[in-house]
Q: What sequence folds into this?
């Protein structure tokens, strides 16, 4: 069987439109040296490119106690990505998934992310947690294999309230710490996955010049604000969070996707 890169994302609710899925799909397939199977778990598939394989967004049997714990943790609606970790989600899956949040932009080769320490859950060290000296992965980019890491689904399904409580309602803390406890975790090298606000557009440099794309960045994360459309146009959110218009983001996220998929989907 030919080697295929299995890519997955989740789109629930209406915060992100189909263009976020399509542009992620385009960015991934333009930056991998192998065929791509791209999956999106969603309840809203309208407008998504026909080559994207749609997985229905499930109502998990443990949803009620999980939501009760999330409400106490003040994170109502989080931890939906746990549904991606279930063994057998894709019956003919061979090898790992490389997963992405929708608020990321692909800017370089993803092959090293797939090849990094096979058999382990891979995430980048969370920027804030690292600054505080805590060992937690960031959930915007994550590699896992359901055949080997099904415990990420099974443990939560067995004890949803207790697991959410232990993770303080944080999906990325749950995922990374569970894998760390089993010695099945590796950090993605930090230069490969960067933060737009911390690495591309830090204060006070953002007052002086436009955002810069680090040389070895393969994925740029837009956690918090600005999101991609805001950053393209230029953004003023607070004294610290502001950005001049970003031409390289327009190129990577919009122009190259339109050239790849056509204006209907790009």
A:
């Amino acid at each position: 069987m030919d080697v295929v890169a299995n890519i997955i994302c989740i789109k629930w609710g209406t915060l992100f439109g189909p263009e976020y899925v399509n542009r992620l799909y385009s960015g991934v397939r333009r930056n991998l040296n192998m065929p791509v199977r791209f999956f999106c778990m969603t309840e809203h598939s309208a407008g998504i490119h026909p080559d994207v394989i749609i997985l229905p967004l499930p109502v998990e049997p443990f949803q009620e106690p999980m939501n009760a714990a999330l409400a106490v943790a003040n994170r109502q609606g989080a931890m939906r990505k746990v549904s991606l970790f279930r063994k057998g989600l894709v019956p003919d899956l061979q090898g790992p998934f490389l997963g992405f949040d929708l608020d990321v932009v692909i800017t370089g080769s993803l092959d090293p992310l797939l090849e990094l320490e096979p058999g382990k859950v891979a995430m980048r060290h969370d920027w804030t947690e690292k600054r505080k000296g805590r060992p937690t992965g960031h959930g915007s980019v994550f590699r896992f294999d359901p055949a080997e890491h099904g415990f990420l689904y099974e443990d939560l399904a067995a004890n949803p309230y207790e697991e959410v409580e232990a993770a303080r309602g944080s999906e990325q803390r749950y995922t990374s710490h569970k894998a760390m406890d089993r010695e099945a975790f590796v950090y993605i090298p930090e230069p490969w996955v960067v933060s737009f606000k911390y690495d591309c557009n830090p204060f006070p440099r953002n007052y002086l010049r436009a955002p810069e794309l680090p040389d070895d960045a393969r994925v740029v994360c837009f956690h918090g604000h600005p999101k991609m459309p805001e950053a393209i146009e230029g953004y003023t959110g607070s004294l610290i969070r502001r950005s001049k218009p970003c031409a390289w983001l327009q190129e990577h996220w919009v122009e190259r996707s339109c050239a790849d998929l056509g204006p209907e989907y790009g």
